Amino acid sequence: MTQLPIIEMRGITKSFPGVKALCGVSFAAYPGEVHALAGENGAGKSTLMKVLSGVYLPNDGAIVVAGKERHFKHPLDAIEAGISVIYQEFSLLPERTVAENIFLGREPTRCGIVDRRAMETEARRVVALFGEAQHIEPDALVADLDVASQQLVEIAKAVSLDAKVIVMDEPTAALNETECEALFALVEMLKKRGTAIVYITHRMREITKLADRVTVLKDGWTAASYDHVPTPDTIVHAMVGRDIGDYYAEPATAQEIGALVLSVRNAGNDQLKNISFDIKAGEIVGFAGLQGAGRVALARALFGAAPFTKGEVTLAGQSARFQSPREAIRAGVGLLPGDRKGEALVLMQSVSDNGMLTARALSNLAGHDKATRFASTTSMDALLRQVDVRAGNFSQEIKSLSGGNQQKTIVARWLSLDPKLLIFIEPTRGIDVNAKAGIYHLMRELARKGAAIMMVSSDLPEVLGTADRVLVMRLGELAGEFARGATEAQIMLAATGEKVGAA
Amino acid sequence: MRRLITATLAAALLASTAQAQQLNFDDPVEFDKQRQQLTAKANGPEGEPWVQYYGDAIVDTAKFKKDGPYTVCFSNAGVNNAWRVTGWTNMQAEVKLHPEIKELIHVDAEGSDDKQIADIDDLLNGGKCSVLIVSPNTTAALTPAVEKACGVLPVIVFDRGVNTKCPVTFIHPVGGYGFGIQAGEFVAANAPAGANVLLLRIIPGVDVLETRASAAKRIFKEKGLNVIGEEFTEGDNAKTKSIVEDYLAKGSLDAIWMDAGATAVAALEAFEDAGKPLPIITGEDQQDFLQKWKAEGFKAIAPTYPTYQWRTPIIAAVKVLRGDPVPGPEWVMPQPAITAENLDQYVNDKMPPLHHAMCGCEKLPDYPAAWGGK
Amino acid sequence: MTQPASMRNIAPARRRLQQINPVYFVLAVLIVAIAVSNPSFVEPTGYMNFLKRAAPLAILAAGQIYVIVSGGFDLSVGSLITLTVVGSSMLLNNNADATWWVILVMYVIGALVGLINGLVVSYLRVPSLIATLGMMITLNGVAFMWSSGSPRGYLPETFRYFGRVNIQGVPLIQFLPVALIALVMVGATFYWLMHRTNFGRMLHAIGDNPRAAKMSGVPVERVRVLAFMVSAFSAVTAGILLGGFAGVSTDVGIGYELQAITATVIGGAQLLGGRGSVPASIAGALTLTAIFTLLNFVGLPKPTRDVVQGVILIAAVVLATYRRNRTGT
Amino acid sequence: MSSFARYRAAWRLERYAPALLLGIALLIYIAMALGLGQTRFLTPEAAVSILNRSIALGMTAVGQTFAILVGSIDLSVAHLISASAVVSSAIMDGNPAMMLPAAFAALALGAVVGTLNGLLITKLEVNPLIATLGMSLVIQGCLASFYGSFKGSVPDEFQIFAYGNLLGLPISLLVLVMLTLLAWLVLRFTRFGSNVYSVGGNRDTARAAGIKTARIVIASHVICSLYAALAGLYLASRLKSGSPWIGAEGAYDLESIAVVVIGGTILSGGKGGIWGTVAGVIIFSLIDSIFNLAGVDAFAKQVMRGIIIVAAVAFYAVRSKRMAA
């Protein structure tokens, strides 16, 4: 290519208290090209894009747009420079309509009056680009849409901006096959118009299919950068930095699998139907499926956060249809939520307090906080050290710890209670590679000690590498069961109910 | 920068208009008039000050003559303090003495001018009222509403006035200067020249309280007393006590002058708790103060703003509706002070602490139960 | 490993100094200023009167901080104070023998008020600002209804003992106000409950992140209800002290809710929950009282006091935000 | 979930809840009037008089809606109302020629206060409750030290604002209707209005979409303060002069907040609207009228009011999945 890049990021460095998220990363996007940005969770992809979109100010480095150095102090600067980002975590306002969300902050006006008709016409036009199957009324409230439709609104927002650069952060995570194809067609169309697309994914198939260049990030560094599309193996190697083999822990041996711990029969609620499965002590059971397939709903139902309304559940022989997390915890169930900041951490409190939280919650309210029935601060310190939480001291606020150390603290929280069943949801989301391996080994260690482990993850290689058995969910039901050694293709097939050529 | 300039301008505006506007609460003519009234002989039956009046201005009310039974409407500023509670009880009891009154419709403005204006509007729209009694929340604010009512039916105003002569009569005791004079002269007569006097006030800006203070200050100045402070208590016991404690910590206090006596006992307790002898003090006719006065025997006077004035509007209303003449357009009634000599007449330990003794209610129906007494 | 280099190099002593809540320094400076402007303050009558006067607000702040840490507000405390004083006077009617059971009844009423506040916030999901605003209006009405507008009984000396009496003949300090003993006892109990028990930790957790607390097994509703009950308990206590200090009146409690919240904010509490300390809130209350006392001694009129209170309130929050941003926590 | 359903705007109870509450209040009122045989309380004149009760509260609440929608709150309106009333009446001082300058000064004061509130909240990151509470104390203090009592007086020409009639309707009511319509137009039809909802809904999302969130918050506070200043002008006209306690006396700070949330605008922002607030104001007036009709005394009225505020908000809140604190 002889063309000039539309945008170029040079030597971007960004650090947060306690974490260095990006270290001298460079990146460029050319018109009419798809530049794939690959990397593990926590490699810095999202942070890089937030710098590009003006959400974060970089500590060092430069952004050059059309040959001119720019400093984005506010997202508006980036938008004006023609950069549009579709974030992984949705940035939609649930209480507003589809059209209002698409035109958030840039509503068309006529004589100062918002031109609702123009808004709805344009929204209709953009949504129509996705094909006949995807029909969303512009005046529907976003809160009334399902996850996939919301994703579509996100994309529509960027498309309607007519941006020079569109960043898509794992856009297919919630889409089914047909929707994916429509998206790919859309990407091709945008390419033809001369838009530069930054496509963040860790799905090799999408890279192979769409990308013109590939950059791989790892732990905040540029691990590799290619002006062509290399083989998936090369990319994976650059992403992971070592062989998959020793990355995951050893599977369970036949002897290690013990008595039945959890048994679910014909259970269901408004999101789940007819669920039946078992988990034995010492076993890690992975749950795969598309976003919205009911895996998280199942975990929350077991944990009593969104209880089952029918069916039977037993835990170690006892009836176990819990109505609240507290009830579940008392009976020996633990859960590590996927939304760590939202559902697990109390950010202003210390590492130690976060570890002690559940032990204290189950103890006498008037009891001494340093020595509860389940753990004392001393035993918690030992646990935290055992799971290898790295902090200056355990009385510092947990806010300043990295994602991996935060997650390990939550593991220690549950360890102190010796749970019979431990549910991990997206256990390695936003965690760096080394910490990931640590979490995998911790899970295995727990299983060896006799816990039954349920793991819900959208990271298919992770599920395949960690679980002893994989259950696949689709549309709120169990759609298949696979022993260790299944391929991604088999699982995707079960998850989508369609023929898939997964990487 | 532009914002800064705007802000400065606004502040300057505030300050300059403030300078230009100082209402006059120190009127020597009114001062002398009220001083005379305090010692003048009132017309009307002895021992019933609620029907007594000064002067001989009488208004003819024949044009309001109407057959009974009557519906009396009363727009009340509020019953938000003990004085008004005693008064309101008086008024209700007075109504029971008049069988020709079929109904007393009472609307409570809860201390809000805005609401009282709306209330009067409602009463007029209701069309049931034979006569309207108004106890205005503030003088200026209620004037337009009262003017409007005058066009429709006879209006009687009492307690605070309005800036219009349209009501049939405006019933009130001698006034703020009179109160200030009684209290001020007592302190001046009993304290040695140069004595330290602390003025305890409720809040600034209320006309009747301002005139009390200006009268007292005029007297203190004449006598050469040393006013060492003028503090606002917001009628709060705790604040009053704290303020007095602070003054006692700083130096000696010989006398306390109060523009309203509600917190007099708290002021005295500050002396007690500090182990200091009780000062010369001016209070009001609240029972707790009178009882303490009787028990401790300190030098005190209790000028009153008598709650018996709440009986008068009902009496006047009935007269007006019958077409009988009433004192007016101002009905100024006596404003006695309680002194050591007549204290025993008013002390009554069967009555609740915040009961106002100058209520003229002892012979009214349901006394003392309705007033909370035993 | 995650500590920035600059933090490591600070001498331990200085670091500890930085960790001390600035409210204590501010309070110390104010006390010195008062003592300078009015030398008699250093005598027992001076500072004991000060503490006695500050005790109700300090107790109230120590209770309010429970609700603040749990992520809410309690605006109903002022009215509850009024209700306590008015209700006690109605029930007691100068009958000294009834003191103890009347106090008990008042605490039961307080517990009920806290319980209702907590239940409304927890189960009806009404924001505490609105729930306790409604309670404030309601209780005020109840107090007036009960007394038909003006309280009809005296408070006997046995009741007023707690707020008024100084125990004489105490060595060193000559005398000791009972209110101060009450403050120390309540302060110590509240300190223990907030900073030494599981309850206190749960309180921080639900204010910090209620969803995470729920998912971690914290009985969120129960803890929240208890927080409102503690606050109501402190309001009844403050009411007993204020009634004792100054006797019967109908508007004792007015404005105390905002003063209590102000005190906790000056004490560095995080509004909307997760951070706050009982001793610092008490210090905040003392600071507020000290400011008023100082302005009084200096002879500034009330309007100026309002302005100063407003400015200090905003400044305290700005300072706390600035400190937090700077230390990166 | 694997294919896109055809989504249309769904019918939602919340949207009609304020109207429902208003309907209930209206029914009670009518039932009481009929029951007591007081049918003259059901005439158009009576309706106008009910609405006329709450002009000042209405103006303040419409402004407060902006502050709450944007995710903030304003406790300084009560004292700002007093300040506006006093300053304008002091400047007019009975002189009709000074009417415009006085109104301008009051509005300028409102703009300054609103800007300061907004700056404190956005630039110094002070919690809006504390920022506006502090501001409220400062205004109160300034007011009391400059003006002790009623100041100035309003010329008769200016009193037309509060007492005049046009086409058989009170001018003040017409002004309130116009101000309400204006607020509705701004919120519904301008980009700024959309931005208010966006910033209130989620400040980070709004920022990421390129909205200058600080400006929106400041502007919302300026609007809130301007409406309060207008309420002050109205009260000056109604009371013939400005009193420094008129705002606090009417408890316009807490009442306006109560009215807004009764109207279904959620305290955390981003959801609700002007018509809900209007419903809330009318509900409050109706409650007043119902109590007056029934002859309930002021104290019992207070008790009921407190309960009604909580019950109305619970009516909305109990269905939402949000955890309250």
Automatic annotation (TrEMBL), chain A:
UniProt xrefs under Gene3D superfamilies: P-loop containing nucleotide triphosphate hydrolases
Domain of life: Bacteria
Domain ABC transporter residue range list: 7-244, 257-500
Classification via CDD domains: ABC_Carb_Monos_I, ABC_Carb_Monos_II
Gene Ontology MF, one: ATP binding
UniProt-listed Pfam families: ABC_tran
Keyword Transport appears in the UniProt entry: yes
Keywords: ATP-binding, Cell membrane, Membrane, Nucleotide-binding, Sugar transport, Translocase, Transport
Protein name according to UniProt: Sugar ABC transporter ATP-binding protein
Species of the source: Aminobacter carboxidus
UniProtKB/TrEMBL annotation, chain B:
Keyword check for Signal: yes
Official protein name in the record: Substrate-binding domain-containing protein
Keyword list, A-Z: Signal
Domain Periplasmic binding protein stretches: 73-324
Cited SUPFAM superfamilies: Periplasmic binding protein-like I
Main location class: other
Family membership noted in the UniProt record: Belongs to the bacterial solute-binding protein 2 family.
PANTHER family referenced in this protein's UniProt entry, alphabetically: D-ALLOSE-BINDING PERIPLASMIC PROTEIN-RELATED (PTHR46847:SF1)
Signal peptide location: 1-20
Organism: Aminobacter carboxidus
Subcellular location, record wording: Cell envelope
Pfam families linked to this entry: Peripla_BP_4
From TrEMBL, chain D:
Membrane topology qualifier: Multi-pass membrane protein
InterPro entries found in the cross-reference section: ABC_transp_permease (IPR001851)
Primary localization: membrane
Pfam families in the cross-refs: BPD_transp_2 (PF02653)
Keywords tagged on the record: Cell inner membrane, Cell membrane, Membrane, Transmembrane, Transmembrane helix, Transport
Lineage: Bacteria, Pseudomonadati, Pseudomonadota, Alphaproteobacteria, Hyphomicrobiales
Subcellular localization, as worded in the UniProt entry: Cell membrane
Keyword Ribosomal protein part of the UniProt annotation: no
Transmembrane segment boundaries: 20-41, 61-87, 99-122, 128-148, 160-187, 216-236, 257-287, 299-318
Keyword match Translocase: no
Organism: Aminobacter carboxidus
Protein name, UniProt field: ABC transporter permease
